[in-house]
Amino acid sequence: QGRNIAILYGSQTGTGEEFANRLAKDAQRYGMKALVLDPEECNADDLPQLIDIPNSLVLMCMATYGEGDPTDNAQDFHDWLKQGDTMLTGLRYAVFGLGNKTYEHYNSMGKFVDKRFEELGAERVYELGLGDDDTNIEEDFVTWKEGLWPAVCQRFGLEASMEDGSFRAYSFTKYEDGDLDPKTIYTGEVARLHSYDNQRPPYDAKNPYLAPIQVNRELHNGGDRSSAPTNTGNPLRNCTKSGWWTPDEPSSPSLPTSPPANPPSTIFVSCCLDSRPATTPLPAPQGNFTLFLLAHSLYIHLHNKCDIKQVISSTNRLSVLRIAKKRKPVLRAIRALEVFSGKNSNMKYSSGGRTPQHITIPIITPHILPLKPLTSQAHPNSIHICAVVVKYETKAGYTNLGVATNWLSTKTPGGEPPARAPIYVRKSQFRLPFKVSHPVVMIGPGTGAPFIGFIQDRAYHKEAGKDVGKTILYFGCRKRSEDFIYGDQLDEWWSVLTELNLAFSRDGEKKVYVQHLIAENRDSLWKVIEGHGHIYVCGDARHMARDVHDAIVSIVEEKAGKTHQQAVDFVKGLMNKGRYSADVWS
Ligand SMILES: Cc1cc2nc3c(=O)[nH]c(=O)nc-3n(C[C@H](O)[C@H](O)[C@H](O)COP(=O)(O)O)c2cc1C
């Protein structure tokens, strides 16, 4: 196809994919043509053939998940690199890793791919970039690519062309309801026109299933995170959706971008004015969808002063202005977005009552990132989401509402048509041991996330007469009377729970957290570790997961008579064997 750069991405929630697309756009500026590829959809054995293309280059944006694992779409590519011995001699490459420093296996996938390509004889044209989602991954990426392109140009003897290929021009026309045939109008579908009315499997992030909502329940009982209407705190809710999935599907569902609740009465049509071929094989509806959403939100923002949650980075803001043909309306739109997102508290925005009819849309679209999916627990015939509804005041005095949790919180079961949530299911690495007889220790303060599903699974096997191993739960919250969620279901669980250890951090004089209980129960925990036990930790990565890890290392030190380093290595060994799993976030 006349392209010389292949850009592979390993991405779960879209950041890596977006970075790959941006690199493809950059390439045009240097007279090169890139193709963005999902490794799942290509054959890695073809990689060495790229060497035959003049000035060929492989760029990779690889995210890390779980315990240093690749993303689902890069799993096979990872295995191919790990096991394979296909030489990549002469192939030029550079890697940008996406990760988060609060995880123990920081950017493992990016590091692995970078190292492995070198081992297989490929030539690194630019140093490995490490993006840290805990601080500012956008800045990390921009800094990396600012160094990458000069290095690539130097290697290929190229100069930057004057053409700015990173942006596209679109026309943008507003229609009133009735002007266009409704059958031709996207109303928020991600990929296929009317896919929400006419549901067709297979379901995935771009074609989610609209699951009917059966229950929406407040789990907190008072406290400053109650959902009482007069309270501005964060209510905790549990939404159950049911009757939608076949039991043989894998177990971790996600909630993707939701369709707009009500079809808009104002319709925008965007047309690409550019004759250049697209750098990415995105189907047109995807673009329209983004444009539609953006246009719709801009319209609402500028006139109704609704809220938007996206933040525009300073680097992007500059490029937006640099290429904007109509500076004023664009500047106004950006200011509006910034003010509403609380990013720039000094700016005040007034639309002056005018309609921004001719905003050059594409200069803004790249900066509106897609919503990230929410994850939840799965149960054979229903999906449960347990979430704190996110709501807080920004420094500029605006109220920011978490998109997905606030959307969910308003969904009441029943109704005609019934309230539905768009979902899809993907495989999780965080799984119970294959043998139900093996003991498990679950440590999950806060929402206790997937453990409800784990306990239900153990109870199911017990009822079926199987020899279920010890099932131990460590749960922590603030106060028994307020946020001891699922406390009322204990009776149901006792049939399978061997031990329930509760840490209430604000009930007594002394703050008690799960790691304290773990330290107290060192004898019984060590027995579990010795007896093929599996440990699962779920929740806050920054503090809890580290403290729990340290508490377990101390137990190993004391009980097995090891030095600190030996105990750390022992716990690492458990992790490698899949006997210590963490599903943690920050
Ligand atoms: C559940 C979860 C697990 C993660 N595990 C790791 C990890 O082990 N190491 C790491 O460096 N980053 C980890 N991250 C951070 C992601 O790699 C990072 O947010 C990245 O930007 C996601 O890219 P994507 O949007 O392309 O999927 C994790 C993130 C989540 C949500």
Automatic annotation (TrEMBL):
Domain Flavodoxin-like stretches: 5-149
Compositionally skewed regions (Polar residues) per UniProt: 227-243
UniProtKB keywords: FAD, Flavoprotein, FMN, NADP, Oxidoreductase
The answer, when asked if NADP is one of the entry's keywords, is yes
Instruction: Name it.
Output: NADPH--hemoprotein reductase
- On the tree of life, the source organism's domain of life is Eukaryota
Annotated spans, Disordered: 219-261
Question: PANTHER family attached here?
Answer: NADPH--CYTOCHROME P450 REDUCTASE, NITRIC OXIDE SYNTHASE-RELATED
Return the GO cellular component terms, semicolon-separated: cytosol
A Pfam family cross-referenced in the UniProt record is NAD_binding_1
In its UniProt entry, the species of origin is given as Ciona savignyi (Pacific transparent sea squirt)
Q: Which GO terms describe its molecular function?
A: flavin adenine dinucleotide binding; FMN binding; NADPH-hemoprotein reductase activity
The processes (GO biological process) annotated in the record are: response to hormone
Q: Which cofactor does it need?
A: FAD; FMN
Enzyme class, spelled out: oxidoreductase
Database matches in Gene3D superfamilies? 3.40.50.360, Nucleotide-binding domain of ferredoxin-NADP reductase (FNR) module, Translation factors
Enzyme Commission code(s) on record: 1.6.2.4
